[in-house]
Amino acid sequence: MAKRFMPVVFAANDLIEGDSIYLATEGWTRDVRDAVVADTPELRDMLAERAAADAAIVVGPYDVEVSLEAAGPWPLKRREQIKASGATTIPVGPQAQVARAA
Fold first, then answer.
1. What is residue 87's three-state secondary structure?
2. Exposure class string for 48-58: b at 16+ Cβ within 10 A, else e
3. Is the four-CA dihedral 36, 41, 61, 70 of positive or negative sign?
4. For residue range 9-52, what is the model confidence (pLDDT) as tens digits?
């Protein structure tokens, strides 16, 4: 049985700054919510080619499965959520309560 296709965005690292960036309608963005979402395998393939063509701007483009939320796409995997948040970690458990209170 084939795996169900999940929407994806393309992430990479900025060649100069080194931080995570996402393929947008025009160029690249640091906010995953502004990224272009591939909701079909054909669009994913087209965006993969476009991302790979930007070798002078980015390093190592790859697709990231996302959920489609009101504010925009958000990564499904924890590692990608941390990258998208811009934080080095995302608090969990009791630490999350303290972080929310601040």
1. coil
2. beebeebeeeb
3. positive
4. 999 999 998 889 999 999 999 999 999 999 999 999 999 999 99
